[in-house]
Amino acid sequence: MTEFPAAHFRRHRFPAEIITHAVWLYFRFPLSLRDVEDLLAERGINVSFQTVSEWAAKFGLKFANQLRRRSRGQFTDKWQLDEMVVTIKGKKYWLWRAVDANGVDFH
Fold first, then answer.
1. pTM summary value
2. How far apart, in Å, are the Cα atoms of 77 and each of 32, 34, 60, 74, 101?
3. Which conformational region is residue 103 in: left (phi greater than 0), alpha (psi within -120 to 50 degrees), or beta?
4. What is the pLDDT of residue 92?
5. 97 lies in a domain?
6. Residues 36, 63: one domain?
7. DSSP per position, 6-73
8. Could you list the residue range(s) of the whole structural domain that residue 22 is in?
9. Separation between Cα atoms, residue 38 and residue 90, nearest integer Å
10. Would residue 1 count as lying in a domain?
11. Is the pLDDT of residue 2 over 50?
């Protein structure tokens, strides 16, 4: 994960590690704010999706730019496309995920 100076997290209730992890989850994977809230709750961290939204708004742009900068030029020419069919209440949904040769997801 990306490092931010400690001054960025001053006056926040949660430690910097939790905030950066929540923002990283939200921007790195196709998760909703409520999904991030649930993932943190499974690890014993009680934080509302509104708080995650505020963190994403405050730290997100800088974090997303650093993720983009780090991933630039690292994608390979060969890709693997995973497809999965899920049936929910009798209706079929197709889920796809593209992964390059290094295991990097592309969303």
1. 0.54
2. 30, 34, 29, 10, 8
3. left
4. 86
5. yes
6. yes
7. GGGGTT-SS-HHHHHHHHHHHHHTT--HHHHHHHHHHTT----HHHHHHHHHHHHHHHHHHHHHHHTT
8. 6-71
9. 26
10. no
11. no
42 compared with 100, residue with greater pLDDT: 42
For residues 107 and 99, what is the distance between their CA atoms, to the nearest angstrom? 9
**CA 65, CA 67: separation in Å to the nearest integer?**
5
Q: Do residues 66 and 79 both lie within one domain? A: no
- For residues 74 and 92, the answer to whether their CB atoms sit within 8 Å is no
Both tokens of residue 101? Answer: 């040769």
Per-residue pLDDT of 32-83, as tens digits, reads: 999 999 999 999 999 999 999 998 888 887 776 776 676 666 555 666 667 7
User: Which tokens go with 48?
Assistant: 């509302």
Tell whether the model's pLDDT for residue 98 goes beyond 60: yes
Q: Beta-carbon neighbour count of residue 47 at 10 Å?
A: 17
Q: Which amino acid is at 94?
A: W
